[in-house]
Amino acid sequence: MKILISDSLPDICKTILENAHFQVTVKTDFTPQELQKEIGKYDGLIIRSSTQCTPEILENAARLRAICRAGVGVDNVNVPAATKKGIIVMNTPGGNTTSTAEHTITLLLALSRNIPQACNSVREGKWERKKFMGTQVSGKTLGVIGLGKVGKEVAKRAIALEMKVLGYDPFVSSETIPKLNIQLVKDLDVIYKQADYITLHIPLINETKNLISSREFALMKDGVRIINCARGGILSEDALYDALVSGKVAGAAIDVFEKEPPEGNKLLALDNVLPTPHLGALTEEAQYAVARDAAEQMVDALKDNNIRNAVNMPVQGPEEFQQLKPYITLTEKMGALLIQLVKGRIKSIDIQFSGDVSKNNIRPLTDSLLSGMLKHVLDEDVNIINARILADERGIKINETISSTSEDYTNLVFARTNTDNGESSVSGTVFKNNEPKIETINDYRVDMGPIGHVLILFGQDKPGLIGEIGKMLGDQDVNIGHMTFGRKGTGGVAMIVINVDAVVSGETLLSIEKMECIDSAYMLKF
């Protein structure tokens, strides 16, 4: 497999990939047009902040399976376009956490003690001690907006400086930060009204664009200080300028700007602005760590399908992925089985999760089942990333239900397709050894391992039927590995599931269907 590294990264990134036997190309001077032309050659792409993965570039990414951003933010990747193509988009959130947190605290202290201004004054031969009177941070209130990895680390350091910390994050509960002395607030206005310092640690998305503007500044204490090491655009730069000029904001430390470099930005003309050139993660240790993490995650994703830190995958972290992996395997197999049984256009799919499995995150399990179905019938690449989008585009309605109890199993997944020509159903479970099993097909009990080639026959329960089928397959040199016979009553309709060692030819399949007792025959591949 071929990997492209299109931004400058430490050599450790290339070394890890080559040790995993990938073909690695490092080229950091692609124009957008050149990258659009060349991207189709690669299975994986590793970037930093310079490369822009636009929809036009991704449209040509015929082989691309994964993009990894060596860093936290993925705003230079069009995630919806990548998701539509089934491309995993990963980041490396842990590698630069400490560096960004330290930079935030550095800026907070520099603002408090007027360090840049005092330094410049001394260089000019002056000794203006009273002019640069500072304020101590001990006893002050810090408002942390965003309590992800970086936000939590900033809070820990601020608490060590004897600051009171208010935190806001709609996705964090008090139970997740029991060891940190952070007061969680449910309303951002509380932070605006009470904080002496405010620091931002959230992504730039539609909901956070200009999150802090004129209204928010008006709510703040006079003399508040602002630090932004997250993303440009979260703060309205025009509103910040007005607040700085009026004295509402005593000072602002800005590591990120709406446009970088910030040429002609009027904030740079103000003495109470401390600008740095996007240095948050720019330490030798952080650069090494994110390069290493990006390479390792790419190897794991492409070689072992072990996906970590994917921003467009419905699994939160490697621990949850490992926990769900047996169920993901099961549901993908169930989807593959269903699609090979159905006839007609699928209108809807009903999926029920019962027992222990219902306590998990069921979203990736549904997406995996859809992936198993659609990859058998669509020309485009289908995987757990884009399966739901592709199903939605085709008007397939998904109905999910959960039940904490299962009558006969510790866990059970049931799925039913509704088509123009009727219904088909399958159920499956995962045993303690993580082995997936198909338990029923169209309400027939089968207890089947979903592997290899499987011949499924529906017909009448007649004496000698199994022997006749076995002889016909033997005559075609098709060896039987395992056979299951299911029926609902003596002499009625029955189903035979046969695990075979090779594909049964279409000609043989037609011959079987012509048998007097056989109504239909299906050759399935897993």
Can you tell me about this structure?
By secondary structure, the protein is of the alpha/beta class. It folds into 4 domains: 2-95 and 286-304, Rossmann fold; 97-275, NAD(P)-binding Rossmann-like Domain (Rossmann fold, 3-Layer(aba) Sandwich), CATH 3.40.50; 314-450, 60s Ribosomal Protein L30, Chain: A; 451-526, Alpha-Beta Plaits (2-Layer Sandwich). The protein is built from 16 helices and 22 strands. The strands form 4 sheets. The protein has a 7-stranded parallel beta sheet with strand order 8-7-6-9-10-11-12, with helices on both faces. Helix 3 (55-59) links the parallel strand 3 and strand 4 (66-69). Helix 1 packs parallel to helix 11 and helix 12 (317-341) runs parallel beside helix 13. It starts with a strand and ends with a strand.
Question: In terms of topology, how is this protein built?
Answer:
Elements: E1 2-5, H1 11-19, E2 23-26, H2 32-38, E3 44-47, H3 55-59, E4 66-69, H4 79-84, E5 88-91, H5 97-113, H6 115-123, E6 141-145, H7 149-160, E7 164-168, E8 182-184, H8 188-194, E9 197-200, H9 214-219, E10 224-228, H10 237-246, E11 249-254, E12 273-275, H11 284-304, H12 317-341, E13 346-355, H13 363-374, H14 387-393, E14 397-403, E15 411-419, E16 422-430, E17 436-441, E18 444-448, E19 453-460, H15 465-475, E20 480-487, E21 493-500, H16 506-513, E22 518-525
Parallel strand pairs: 1-2, 1-3, 3-4, 4-5, 6-7, 6-9, 7-8, 9-10, 10-11, 11-12, 13-14
Antiparallel strand pairs: 13-15, 15-16, 16-17, 17-18, 19-21, 19-22, 20-21
